Amino acid sequence: MVTLKDYQGGETAWCPGCGNFGILVAVKKALVELGISPHEVLMVSGIGQSSKLPHYMKCNLFNGLHGRTLPVATAAKLVNHRLHVFAVGGDGDGYGEGGNHLIHTIRRNIGVKYLVHNNQIYGLTKGQASPTSDLGFVTKSTPRGVVSTPLNPISLALALGASFVARSFSGDVPHLVQMIKEAVNHRGFALIDILQPCVTFNHLNTYSWYKERVYKMGEEEGYDATERLAAFKKAQEWGERIPIGVFYKEERPAFEELFPAIEDMPLVNQKIEPKQFERLIKEFM
Amino acid sequence: MKTVEPILLSGNLAEAYAIKQLDVDVVAAYPITPQTTIIEKISEYVADGELDANFMLVESEHSAISSCLSAASAGARVFTSTSSQGLLLMHEILFITSALRLPVVMAVANRSVSAPINIWCDHGDIMPQRDVGWIQLFAESAQEAYDKLIQAYRIAEDPEVRLPVMVNTDGIILSHTYEPVFLLEDSEVASFVPWKLYPLRLDPENPLTMGAFGYPEYYFETRYQSAKALEDSINTISEVDEKFGEISGRKYGTVSPFRCEDADVILISMGSISETIRATVRKLREKGEKVGMISLKLFRPFPFKEMISLVQDVKAVGVVDRAFSPGAAVGPVFNDITSALYLSKMSVPCVNFFAGLGGRDVRMAEVEDMFEKLKEVANTGVVKEHRYYVGLRG
Question: Which chain A residues are Cβ-neighbours of B82 within 8 angstroms?
Fold first, then answer.
């Protein structure tokens, strides 16, 4: 039986108190509770403090370039769709540099689970405004405050027709574990936007800032996560109250299910047998 | 502020200060180590009202260079800065910037490229940009980074040139090390690089087209003109350096020789490593050894003639490359040096040293070792090994 120890990785280089620790614990817990072994998991990460997460656990890892997690994860899932493929990145990586890939990955509905560590700041480069930094936020690159409207990843994903859209908070590990498990069990692409305090470079969106604001949607009576328009309305809430939980969920075939050739066996396990092509080749000769 | 006494600045902060004095109109950038502190400082100048510029925090380096290109096409004085993967992401726009003859200026804090991920210095990011048609200057100190950036705008905006310019400074080693830097007065910078509105810009009153389709009947000629402009720009680059010397007392040349006059062997290098080599030459000269060195200050256009005049009586030449050119027999700088020799019908034994990749330190002892190898070649006239990998393990 798989245990937390099986996922034990090396020493971390994050700041003490970093919100990433909660995410690391939650990812491992969710995988253990789902009975998934490390060899069945591929983590694809980009560049940022978030993208170091797979370095600190034991599983398959592809660490690529800034913003480019999703194309890599998509291809990996297609050649071995039995693998649990996660993409891990931050708000700069996923919503900034890699924004274009997010759009097209959502369209495809490939069975990749995307964990976005959203700390509303660039942590690795030491404190510049990110695509989700709140208006007026003073950072090293915005000494007079952010003037661009922050990107709302939830409403963006909903508008693009994403089949699973959730938000969680790294300060609430049990909730995040639940979200990751639901994402893994979902057919197709899942986006989990994870609110994550950066204790060193973001002194606005702190643990207490988030704690005072987040509330669980499930606890609110009458919220139906299958209603896209309601989800869209809910996604607009930010500021005094910040909803966490599954905003929207829809059953539809995942991208990898659209290829009959890999229905029985992942592409990676299929042998190239030239004899099978002989008839076809002859036909064109 | 003209400082009679130097003030302590890192390469990045010295460059940011130059940008403020140059009164740049548009700055577009994306954070990446080790460049980030340049644009952080500029954002502060803008926020504090010390620089009247439009500071654009964009979503990628591709957007940063695209924004600079378009702002320059409308007549603005622009600046961007990047490193490593950021520079690689800009790649396709770099060609367009030079072909459209837009005077964009960029500071590059040179850093290795992935994989593996490494944030330290080498020239792996700049070498893939050899053929993009930009003027490429190399600095070997924070002072030189400051001076070169001021020179860069005068070169780029010269009506005879009108080409984009990159100022390369070794990441971490120069970008983050503080050293004494002499600054010019704001007014001196302003009069050295006076702002002029370009005649050929996007202007609703006088419409023109940029970046249009080039049929086979015209494409060849257009590209030739860009290449020719880059080749010819060397005269302006030298003139600007001379004129800069007049106001600052500092000039660098396209190639900077040290103790080459009677040298038997010479090492050629670019960037901060040249400082270590110069110090080693000084040490070996004290022992009576006839060694010299050349710091290459201009990489594109390549200063063929200037280089040749310095090495014609030498018995052996060593070239330090801080990047690989995989699949080629030699490194990129070596390639240019040996082409220059060939075109001048000179046959000097040359040795290629690969050193300092991914931030690996190159110390004086290693430079002495390079000179030892060159002396052996000089004595025997035979190049046993034309490539050495300095300090490579395994």
Answer: none
- What CATH number is given to the structural domain containing A80? 3.40.50.970
Helix (H), strand (E), coil (C) string for B312-366 = CCCCEEEEEECCCCCCCCCCHHHHHHHHHHHHCCCCCCEEEEECCHHHCCCCHHH
Q: Name the one residue in this structure whose structure tokens are 């109250």.
A: A241
Contact A228, A157 (CB under 8 A): no
DSSP state at residue B174: T
φ, ψ of residue A259 in degrees (nearest 5):
-110, 100
Confidence (pLDDT) at B348: 95
Q: Is A126 on the interface with B (CB under 8 A)?
A: yes
**Same-domain check for residues B241 and B262:** no
Residue B1, domain member (yes or no): no
* B30/A148 CB distance under 8 A: no
Nearest 5°: the CA angle B146, B228, B331 is 65
- Name the pTM for this structure: 0.93
The alpha carbon torsion through A79, A81, A83, A87 (nearest 10 deg) reads 80
Question: How many structural domains does chain A have?
Answer: 1
- Predicted complex ipTM: 0.86
**Is the CB of A142 less than 8 angstroms away from the CB of B85?**
no
Range of the domain at A99: 4-259
Tokens representing B301? 């256009």
On whether residue A32 sits in a domain, the answer given is: yes
Last residue of a domain, one of B188, B221, B248: B248
- A239 inside 8 A of chain B by CB: no
Give the three-class secondary structure for B240.
helix
> For B281-324, what is each residue's pLDDT tens digit?
999 999 999 999 999 999 999 999 999 999 988 999 999 999 99
Please write the tens of the pLDDT for every residue from A254-278: 999 999 999 999 999 998 888 878 8
